[in-house]
Inverse folding.
């Protein structure tokens, strides 16, 4: 399950417009793109319509890891990138190698978060056998909508549904 979710995420994220849409939401709302991708995966591939309790469960499962590890590695990587672009940090071979190592560590940390989410989905499937499968079009939109609702409620902002992400996820069914 972990590999399937990871590959789904890579394919969906590679679709035109999806990275910009997701990163825009990440910056504006401080949302976890991995959870957004998981909501899309749960609807498109697993045909699961998540409940508010499910959303709370995946947040509880990943929040500490994401905040303490993924976000911190991302902050280091983006700071190094900004410094090298501004010429604040000399672009030496060791500095470039370190930046690549931090980028790889960030990707590895995101992969671990994906593994946590895939394990949650496998457990969810085992404990909820017999629950009716949802139409992917409805499940993807509903799952992403619930996830965005959490972020917009806490930030006070509004956010339109990420249409390119939804379309990309549905193309991967």
């Amino acid at each position: 399950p972990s590999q399937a979710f990871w590959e789904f995420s890579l394919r969906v994220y590679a679709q035109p417009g999806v990275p910009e849409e997701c990163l825009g939401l990440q910056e504006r709302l401080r949302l976890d793109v991995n959870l957004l991708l998981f909501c899309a995966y749960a609807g498109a591939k697993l045909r699961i319509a998540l409940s508010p309790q499910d959303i709370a469960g995946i947040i509880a499962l990943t929040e500490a890891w994401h905040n303490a590890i993924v976000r911190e590695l991302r902050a280091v990587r983006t700071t190094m990138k900004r410094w090298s672009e501004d010429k604040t940090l000399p672009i030496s071979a060791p500095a470039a190698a370190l930046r690549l190592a931090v980028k790889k560590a960030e990707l590895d940390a995101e992969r671990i978060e994906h593994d946590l989410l895939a394990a949650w989905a496998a457990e969810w499937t085992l404990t909820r056998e017999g629950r009716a499968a949802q139409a992917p079009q409805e499940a993807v939109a509903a799952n992403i909508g619930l996830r965005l609702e959490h972020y917009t409620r806490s930030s006070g902002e509004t956010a339109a549904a990420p249409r390119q992400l939804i379309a990309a996820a549905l193309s991967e069914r």
Q: What stands out?
A: The chain has seven helices and no strands. The chain has a mean pLDDT of 88.
